């Protein structure tokens, strides 16, 4: 669908893509409404991440509960935002190769860990929404609820 290969879709590309993939029974108004659903930030284009997020299947409440338990464990201050300070004593980075070599401090390792969950802004803070979004992507690749449960409990020791 991304004809100009800029990793985003404008309305014209979106409409053309719907037609190309056989969704010809959708009229312009319906296509515009669907475009608006995908264009979460209202920028007038759908970037790759917005597209993928909307294609994900919904998560069960049981999976959401596990994700929230893990976030609560990380959020030691209870303010709804996980920072490097929250991670001290919760996440052990002492076996990280760059920590062992002396290249990174503990705080640098913790910041790198945070950045893996952080959205595009990489501000060193993880909100519940960013954490949920990360695990929605993980969840979409795991069909079995029992396996997702086991993975979360082992990863976060919950």
Report on the structure:
By secondary structure, this protein is mostly helical. It folds into two domains: 8-55, no CATH class; 61-156, EF-hand (Recoverin, domain 1, Orthogonal Bundle), CATH 1.10.238. Helix content is 54%, strand content 5%. The protein is built from nine helices and four strands, in the order E-H-H-E-H-H-E-H-H-H-E-H-H. The strands form two sheets. It has a two-stranded antiparallel ribbon with strand order 1-2. A two-stranded antiparallel ribbon has the order 3-4. Helix 4 packs parallel to helix 9. It is elongated.
Beta-strand percentage range:
5-15%
What is the overall pLDDT average? Answer: 92
CATH superfamily of the largest domain: EF-hand
- The tally of beta strands, per DSSP, is 4
Oligomer status: single chain
Helix content: 40-55%
Sequence stretches where pLDDT stays below 50 over 5 or more residues: none
The run of helices and strands is EHHEHHEHHHEHH
Number of domains: 2
Stated plainly, the CATH topology of the largest domain is called Recoverin, domain 1
The largest pleated sheet is described as: 2 strands, antiparallel
Distance between the termini: 42 Å
The total of helices stands at 9
As a whole number of angstroms, the C-alpha radius of gyration is 19 Å
The CATH class name of the largest domain reads Mainly Alpha
Largest sheet: spatial strand order: 1-2
Summarize the structure.
This protein has nine helices and four strands; from the N terminus they run βααβααβαααβαα. It has helices at 11-20, 28-38, 48-55, 61-74, 84-87, 97-100, 106-115, 128-140, 145-156; strands at 8-9, 46-47, 81-82, 126-127.
